[in-house]
Amino acid sequence: MAETTLTDIRDGERKPDAAVVRDALGVGVAVGLSGFAFGVTSAGSGLTLWQTCALSLLVFTGASQFALVGALAAGGGAFAAAAGAFFLGVRNAFYGLRLSQVLALPRAVRPFAAQWVIDETTAVTLAQPDRRAARIGFVATGLSLYILWNLTTLAGALGAEAIGDTDAWGLDAAGPAVFLALLAPMLRTTTERAVAGVAVVLGLGLLPVLPAGVPVLVAALAAPAVLWAQGRRAQKEGQR
């Protein structure tokens, strides 16, 4: 495989392994603690301790997990909840296409590595200057985040069971709050902000009239709608 998929390295520019691990662990710990909020939210939505832990162990993509339990908590059907989680998780497939070039892992390892292809591991991996650093960053981020996310999920679910009614404590808002905190820094361009704004309008506007979980699916139309509008505007400007 050609090395053009990575940044060319000049003498003296290689990043120390310790620095890569330090940065990766910083991301893993910071985001991994959010698993507590998921555990609380999932238990509050009616899922059992084992169901909650299974989601983190097997699904392991925070936004999709929050979308699933949020729809269930709102009274949505299993199909609508799963569909919303699926559409949020599709982005990981595109991450995988890019990371497969950067990491160039052996075929036997790829099915296991796929479990860790998420926002955080992708960001850390692509920020590295060479393949060695990218592999270290991917493994360190994925391992620390996976372990901590699952441990804090367990702690959150156990805590929610001990507390009882999570709504009375306002803990039902923990999941959406964490999701927004993770999403906000990603909205860097005007297009991204426009998509987010349209999605919010669609989701909240349709919430009173559609079954729980369905507004999330409709909000997914925000991206093609914004891109279509921008294309039309660019076309009109080009004709002037």
From TrEMBL:
Subcellular location: Cell membrane
Transmembrane segments: 24-46, 66-90, 136-157, 169-187, 194-223
Pfam families from the UniProt entry: AzlC (PF03591)
Record's keyword terms, sorted: Cell membrane, Membrane, Transmembrane, Transmembrane helix, Transport
Entry-linked InterPro entries: Brnchd-chn_aa_trnsp_permease
Chief localization: membrane
Annotated family: Belongs to the AzlC family.
Listed name of the protein: AzlC family ABC transporter permease
Coiled coil residues, start to end: none
Topology within the bilayer: Multi-pass membrane protein
